Amino acid sequence: MKQNAESIRSYNGAAGGxxxxxxxxxxxxxxxxxxxGVIAIFRMNQVKGFDCPGxxxxxxxxxxxxELCENGVKAVSWEATTKRVSPEFLAAHPVSELxxxxxxxxxxxxxxxHPVKYDAQSDTYQPISWEMAFEEIGAQLRSYNDxxxxxxYTSGRASNEAAFLYQLFAREYGTNNxxxxxxxxxxxxxxxxxxxxxIGKGTVxxxxxxxCELVICVGHNPATNHPRMLSTLREVSLRGGKIIxxxxxxxxxLEKFSFPQSPGDMLTNGSTPLSSGLYNVRVGGDIAxxxxxxxxxxxxxxxxxxxxxxxxxxxxxxxxxTAGFKELAExxxxxxxxxxxxxxxxxxxxxSELTHCYEQSKAxxxxxxxxxxxxxxxxxxxxxxxxxxxxxxxMGRPGAGICPLRGHSNVQGDRSVGINEAPGETFLQxxxxxxxxxxxxxxxxxxxxxxxxxxxxxxxxxxxxGGNMAVAMPDPLVTFxxxxxxxxxxxxxxxxxxxHLLLAKQSYILPVLGRTERDVQAKGVQSVTxxxxxxxxxxxxxxxxxxxxxxxxxxxxxxxxxxxxLPRSKVNWQxxxxxxxxxxxxxxxxxxxxTDYNWRIEQPGGFRMWNGxxxxxxxxxxxxxxxxxxxxxxxxxxxxxxxxxxxTTMRSHDQYNTTIYGMNDRYxxxxxxxxxxxxxxxxxxxxxxxxxxxxxxxxxNHEGVRHERVVEGLTVVIHEMAAGAVGAYxxxxxxxIDLDHxxxxxxxxxxxxxxxxxxxxx
Length: 762
What we know:
The protein has a 6-stranded mixed β-sheet, with helices on both faces. A 6-stranded mixed β-sheet has the order 29-31-30-33-26-32. Strands 13-10-9-15-16 form a 5-stranded parallel β-sheet. The chain is built from 29 helices and 33 strands. By secondary structure, the protein is an alpha/beta fold. The chain is globular and about 80 Å long. The protein starts with a strand and ends with a strand. A hairpin with a 2-residue loop joins β20 (520-521) and β21.
């Protein structure tokens, strides 16, 4: 049904299907990359091919000839494009002009071909030799007396080899400042989950989905953010497993899926139903719901004991493997149902139904995404998910466990090999023993802390290994001016983005090889390695001719800067970039879990990092899995004005993180635009607005004070979602998010629960 214009229409089909095929074809055609794109597509996610530069969903043991998805094709064609940003292009487009381009247009201009430096006189980026760039960057870094005035940012697309060299460079330089893209997404997983089970990673493998009875999907949208998960969920559904969705918004990708590689689905327009139940939890109400489920389980357990019926919870597992159960039970007993129902936004009947499904399952996986992590209590959200699993012993056994859905294809691997602002002493000692320098011990900066340090003049230089940091961060009213105060900004990247236009006194863009491209070094063609969201480490070897002969690999660029900055370095940089197997040897010697690294990545599918919690070995201080109590206040919105709603920021279907592939959001019915606000019909009626109306969103802080932060002229779209909430696109609405509005433990920005008021545009 049309809501207000051709650009906004209801979408009633399944996820995938012919729409995904068409979307894939348009992506390849739009980047003028037919030959390069097709070659890349058939090498993507294959045993001897390259890892998709998109999401971190794992590869199956038995792979199809086309192990891909629509958004993977978008990512590959975006990189394999034949469009070029050459020195001539940059000379013709001053930075002041480029600033007025859209984020889509900046990246759509094509691949960067030469290293460039900003020239203030012409207001353009001008070519510079690699040697001169390294020499100037090194001289500037050597000029600082305090290494902690330099920030080393990392994107999750960097390989293990590049990330290890990067942290080696920074630590020999003398700092632990590692703002990282994981600080903006799964920081609560890295911080909160180890307190519960001793590791900040998921405990399941892809094989566990073959034997689970129930999958609970919480706070994620697989059709857009990790589409290959849909084929796994399809298999769960086809064999009779149950899938339940807990999410503030109805998302088509968790309702039904038409598998593009299934002749039956494609010839008949058939599809497989996925979720058997959708529970539109209130934005920020996940803990209340989880506490309600656990409260009911303990009530049912007491009733079972009284009537001699089978246990509801796993008492034997709890007694042997856990601590804190008594405290959890006491907290749940005193938590009132009135608070649970108000905060969760669900009825008692809905919570009872959910609880019954979970109690009946003998093996349950809980998968979660940024809808759980990006809140002020993101770490506590995850700990309550762990509590729920622990009550039934759903950890460390087949078909059961916790499954955080990482975004970028190697964001987990980067952390494994040392991208960490708070490294452990064991790691630092191993690094020192292997390389012979004294590593810094001072706690470094995460992403939010780094922006504050730049804002306050404490940090003077920013080195970026990929990414679009300034746009990804909240609060551009603070972040953008801060970036313009820097002495030095260095960006290693494949394409232009807005962060490159926030000019420091010296700004450099250094073009890198993409994941799809051949990397030839002194010892021949090199492979890199990545770690997926289920701890599988495998090799990735590009197939395409590089977009330009002037590109260098990320390891080579990092080493080049390191050699120019540290003339008396104790690291043999040149030797390691000539043969990446030597980098992997060093990782093996420093990081536990990488034994026989080079041999094991030669095996089909690679190897899985050892995971204690998967084996019921709890690497916590008390060597137990811990039930962790969260003392939920009577209301989490007590200080906010009555008309305040919670904004949850979202990615469109034509988007991956800050990269905008196009202007459509097919499954939500949006075509050719991003200036929309989603709201449910009843909430819109209460506000006196209707589909097609123009509204403004204004930020509100937790004391109820309105800020100058505003997003104007959004078009209202009616969508099935929780009451008390609105949805709008990221990063356009980042202006509404205060830099201090973040998870208390990990400092991950609370992109998913932003207090706002909605006002009708005049």
